[in-house]
Design a protein that fits this description.
Number of helices of chain A: 14
Strand content of chain A: 15-25%
Structural class of chain A: alpha/beta
Largest interface: A-C, 45 and 45 residues
Oligomer: homotetramer
Distance between the termini of chain A: 27 Å
Helix content of chain A: 25-40%
Largest sheet of chain A: 8 strands, mixed
């Protein structure tokens, strides 16, 4: 896999970033590439458990029309149903274990910088989809996955077992992982690898066992009250906005926990319709986090109680809707050692452990594999950055994509490679 | 009845004011006076419905000991049970209607001024019971009642029917009226009069139909949570103080009502035990008011919902305890006309209507009488004042007491008087 | 003036309602009609004080384009500048007083009912401008003004003095009146009449002296804080949403006032941008009201203090922007009597006084006239209604428009009419 | 020093515990003991900087009278001024370094258990001062200090340099340490030792370098508003209780900090005077904590801003009063090694580090010594406990007191011991 190919793919994706659950163009291009290579393709509708997809609000027809205008592959676009993402499967035909890789493909809501010195501007691949940007390197992850697909297919003759490449939609906000895990396609996987570019590590480095993945629940709360004329009969209303204000204030006051880090945020609040009307609805978007699942559960259970109580206090009704979820993740120990050795051979400087400090819904996939006896690991592929993740001048050293492909391919060869003797 | 007697009684009571439910000395002196005159005495324990006495927290033994030291009548003090107040009944032995009069006897929590120009200081009858003062003229009401008792007994030979004189405890905070009404002693009463000295009217004036008696509910709320060390495990507590703060804030925000005046106050809040302990209890004292019963009910039902909801939101339990209650009152129309005519004859300037603007639990007594077909009225006996009611320099023109006795006696004569012919 | 004409005008306006400050079509049609009749036209830009127009956010080009598509008069549309509304002046050429009339022309944000039994649906003149509706009878007011213009011009030969017809934009939200008053065109007016259709009075009735016009201030508050990643460094943000919640809660808790009715509402709150970002901005839309200006000032001054304090408590900055204002209004006594007599003659049942209970920025115009010694009155022209004002099935008995025109014309004749003798 | 002596002292102190700043009996007994031994005594008035004593509210005459009744040493009681605590100094007369030891002497507000199985009840030394208890082992610390005084004086002939024994008042609530440090008596000290019995370590263990001493600020907030009759003119008040509720709610919502553990508590709130009066004062008692000084400063600065802002929002004034303060502390490395070696020799099991997890104002004393180039350490002398610290059944294995005395004496000998040669 030449670096030039990886860069072409990455920049094409960077130029046309797609939001979570709207990655129709991206999905069609990956599907076309893997399909051409000979992979068996399973599309999103068959891959994700529909009842567990979170934070999904898509006008499918409009998004597909947009994707078509922006150069989606027309045949695949037609085949894609309502749900983005896909799996490509390579079956060597020889008995052996099943390996899996997971790449996330969606962009983030950041308006890309138009500063002259910003490399994507200079090189002409800055985002054309205003307000959205690949500021979290998922374009790089996707390119690595596409490159790995080529590489593995080229090695097919020397491999046994099966390989599954997962291209997951909606990682931002931790909205897609739980549904992908529950979909069942990982249930025969013996070992799963996932990676992220450039978190707290530079080019040429590999973090073997990143820690402190925050457990998180993303939620919306709706309060439904009764409107009334605020001048004529204020007593006749049930004030949803007042309930939301009190709920927000109370949530911010959830006590800290003895056992470690917790977080709460109400990031958005929208309520009311007219200046002189008692507001009959309010909607807030929030999230809890915890250093582990018990801590996050503590926070979210308090949120639920606060919402119930403040709704009661204001005589309004409510709904709480989970919009995303991430759990902790633990790299399988033997797999860590194996990958450290491979990285070493490849000339990468290995870092045993480093703080991740954010959330990742890969945890659901890893848990699914590990619970049935498989192994799983999540790596940080170091990369020099122009600016931090989610910053509007984010950019990364594209050369690391090649290392990524090579490391993953090397691992596949180590696990699935067959000797000449076996082949004959 | 000479004015000198009225003044003596009033000043004696003024000097030794007793708080609501603690009027043991006062009760004993009235009972002695009426008993000597020949009235049948019914004491508090037999007079008030025990389950409806509100805001009552009395160390009976200690208060009786105090009353004894302060010159209570020893025999009557012994006969008084736990509950203060009394009724004296005069039965003429001749068939006829039953009239009733109600006087309130308790003092208010005000520390009397020690200013030289304050008349009670000059004349040496300022309060000896520190922190308590007859700053609402109940000393005057009681003296009028005692004087009326003498006057009526003196007229007994010319009267038919029966007369009941009610000396009600615990009017301040509207704590005694509901229990007295429910006690049943008013159930055979054909007409009831009550009066207040000096509200918005001067010496020589009589307000026939005062209006805007505020309906009110006095309540305490207790929140019970769980203590925990605020440093070591803040998550382990349930914060009763936080619940009380949120409840208070929400109560202050109860919407105004289309139909008229409403009020809410949280007058006291006491919570917590140690600086470094999550507070496990909180207690707040509040009141609602409304221009009519529906408005006060609206306010108090919101309070109840808020307490329930905020307790739930904070994971604490709660109790709401009613500590006082006042309803609206309406003077019977025919009785108004009758009293206006009598007042006229007596040389008083009558004012048809004037705003009362506060609460009075005489409403319960009047409602009881009126519901069974009787008549009732509440009068304002005008008096020039040294300072407003509840002020620490409150004092009133004592001469009006004599007018009061005469007006009430004149009414009794008009209703119950018998002609020589009848007598012979 | 035939009723048929009035109905045609009213239904045309009803079909194409225009929001406050966007009444370009309406303004052009009125201007055309009055211009044809021979009135001197003064358009909005010359009529309203630009610094006092409140709650104005208009894309003038887009609105004019819309108005053109919807049949605005093209020549007048061109002459109208940025500001809607107009005055038409009739100068009789004979010395005499100056009379004025004020009509409001904007629609309200209500989506008209599509129920079959709703008369405007049946007759085909329901709103074509989705989300907006003449649900406050300003279409009727405007039609009356146009009919009056015809009538008065027809009478011109029998009149002395001058007549000014004001068609005011942006009465909804009380946004235009203050600027119109300050514009100065009323400064030579001796007497001003304004009216409203159907508030608490039925067809055939006229309320001579409606009362309880609420004083009101409409305001927006912006809080500006600092964004930060809610997971990584929550301490680095300044939470504008939290400030807005606390401000809202505190505003709802502004104490009731001894002197009478007050109101507070926060009708809308919009805050934050991303679920995982400490919100750096919040915007709330509110209003205060009071039974008189002092009460409204009390409320609004508390709002200002609360906003300042809560901003400080949360380390954010703020702006408060007035978006509308209404003051009380008092009908000149002599004018009341005069109008009652005229109404009587015309066969209308007069009601001396009735509660208005809402806000009206005609108060600014009346105050301007009265302060310089003129007279002013605001009448309620009774009308049977299909549903209350601002309801989506609002409709009124169109026949009352003719009575309205006749009453106003009769008053003009009474004040400005000249005898044959004078004319000859 | 026999264990019997230590136990006698400890149980005598346990039976008559004295609150912070009220340790008059305790101080007199220590002073008497050390004075008899030949120590130079410096009493509290000369030892503590008066402007930095925090959370001190003492009726000195009453407390001294109580202390006298409870067996204080009468001569010393007379000599003690207003301030408790003392220093005893032993000067060997030979040149050498100055060593210091610090013991805290006050009790904590806990009502001792009357359970039969509670050892102090069985043995008859449970607290006679109701509501107060030596539930934090300061009785043991004091006994160790008194025993050490005897031991050192017995060794005087073999020592050079000087020794200062500090008996600090008011450690609970971290109220006395800052004033003692600022008093200057430590300024010539070369090395300082302090210890605590039984925190997270059992009998026979010694923790060399306890960590995670929480920085903390204890504070009271007073809000001063304006009273008004809640029914008659609620608008005339400035509600201090409402301000306190909002301040409390906002404080609980101070954002968590990226850099580590923070805490906030409002442990008490007392506000208002009458149910029907707008509350004109409110007082709250709170504390902030942080894993280090920067974190605690972050918390406390937010508290200050919140109080200022909420006071402004409610139109009330405020005062913030610091009632206690603790900073972090770090054991000098060389001293750690030295003490570990000594403990080893003495047969104690040493634990290098263990979490302390609470606050200690010894930090101010240690900082004072270390800043001028001296060394300091704080040790945990392990002890088996009957119940946790501050629990009402707290009790500790008294035998550890002897180990404590021996370890401290051994250190003094190691540092100040002189050879026979030197002596001769």
């Amino acid at each position: 896999m030449t670096l030039e190919h990886l860069i072409l793919w990455r920049r094409d994706l960077h130029r046309l970033p797609e939001a979570a659950w709207k990655e129709f163009r991206t999905t069609s291009l990956i599907a076309h590439h893997l399909g051409e290579l000979g992979y068996r393709i399973v599309l999103g509708d068959k891959l994700l458990a529909s009842n567990l997809m979170m934070g999904r609000d898509v006008d499918v027809a409009a998004e597909k029309a947009r994707a078509r205008r922006q150069g989606a592959h027309p045949d695949w676009l037609e085949r894609i149903g309502d749900v983005t993402g896909l799996m490509g499967e390579l079956d060597t035909g020889r008995p052996g274990p099943t390996l899996a890789f997971r790449f996330d493909i969606d962009a983030v809501e950041v308006e890309e910088s138009d500063a002259e010195q910003h490399q994507p501007q200079q090189e002409g691949f800055a985002s054309h989809n205003k307000g959205w940007m690949h500021a979290c390197a998922h374009d790089g992850h996707t390119a690595i996955g596409m490159g790995l697909a080529s590489q593995l297919m080229a090695m097919k003759g020397q491999l046994c077992g099966r390989i599954k490449l997962f291209f997951q939609p909606a990682e931002e906000g931790c909205r897609g992982g739980k549904a992908l895990a529950a979909g069942g396609a990982l249930d025969d996987v013996d070992a799963l690898l996932s990676l992220h570019i450039g978190i707290h590590a530079g080019s040429g480095e590999l973090v073997i066992n990143p820690t402190e993945f925050l457990c998180s629940t993303k939620f919306d709360v709706h309060f439904m009250g009764t409107a009334a004329h605020a001048g004529l009969e204020p007593n006749a209303g049930s004030n949803a906005l007042a309930a939301a204000c009190m709920a927000t204030t109370a949530m911010l006051g959830i006590p800290r926990h003895r056992d470690g880090m917790t977080r709460i945020n109400v990031g958005q609040l929208h309520a009311g319709c007219g200046r002189n009307v008692i507001p009959d609805h309010a909607e807030l978007h929030g999230e809890t986090r915890g250093a582990d699942s018990a801590l996050n559960d503590y926070m979210f259970s308090q949120v639920q109680r606060i919402v119930e109580g403040t709704a009661l206090a204001h005589g309004v009704t409510y709904r709480i809707i989970k919009q995303g979820e991430a759990i902790a993740l633990d790299n399988s120990p033997a797999l860590q050692a194996e990958l450290a050795a491979l990285a070493h051979k490849q000339g990468l400087a290995t870092i045993q452990t480093r703080r991740f400090g954010a959330s990742e819904d890969a945890g659901f996939l890893m848990e699914r594999v590990q619970k049935q006896g498989g192994e799983a690991a999540y790596l940080i592929l170091g990369a020099d950055l122009a600016a931090p993740h989610h910053h509007n001048e984010f950019d990364f050293d594209e050369r690391v994509m090649q290392s990524g492909v090579e490391l993953l391919a090397a691992w596949a060869r180590a696990r699935l490679g067959v000797t000449e003797a076996t082949l004959s």
